[in-house]
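hiii, so i know i said id send this last week but things got crazy w the move. better late than never?? heres the sequnce for the chain we talked about at the cafe, plus the structure i predicted for it. fair warning i was half asleep when i ran it
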Amino acid sequence: MGCGATEDDPRTPEGPELMIHGVLTKGEFSEWHRIWLANLKSKTVDDIELPLTVGDCCDASRTRVYQGVDKPNEFLIWMHDADMAKIAEQMGSEPFDKLVTQPLGLESTVKVLNSLPADGKDGPDKADLCISVPTKDREVWTKGFLEHAGNKSPDGFELPASRGELLDDSRTALFKATDDETTVSFLLFDCDLKKLGETMGHENFGKFTESIGELKEGKVIAIQSDPPAPDVAPAECEAEADAEAPAEAEAKTQA
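okay and structure toks below
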């Protein structure tokens, strides 16, 4: 995690990239974002002591927050070098529940982000994707992105398929970066990776993305996957063993 483990920072080096998709059913994004920024380096927010800072859970310098475009009270966090155990500890704590989950009605989904297979042969047939794209002009890019939803010829470029023919576009979610005016991120669901690859590899797709100001350098495409089940802590293992011992002893006695 981060640059590596040290005596002062015992976190696992090179932790995974995580995506957190949050929906605020009660509060406003601005209030959640204020708390997030305050928690970057401080455990204490609004006189409530949280277990950890954001920086304790990931490489905060590389982590990025996006706000929903059509749904402004949704957000996306790309976390780098994430410590999933610490994130679970933070979000599952009573102070976090008091400060964020209950008052803002936070509902969240956590996914691990993995790179697409380079050759396209070893990946799944279908997958959910999380994509980040730098642009020259976010409004121009968004117009073209939305046009491709049900149109095989967005901005006049004939493509093999519209986006709606490649995935479940009813679930597509678009977000804008909070720290600049040009970067976007979006979630795609139930993507046919073979057809998507054929479309993105078509010569007109490159012309189309160039026409709407998409920048190749810095574009990231990742597959969403469920986080692995947490390991049982040694103390928990010992507690389970202590609880099972009397039952095993009684069974042997009866036998």
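btw Strands lie at 17-24, 44-45, 48-49, 64-68, 74-79, 106-115, 126-134, 173-177, 183-192, 220-225. thought thatd interest u
miss u guys!!
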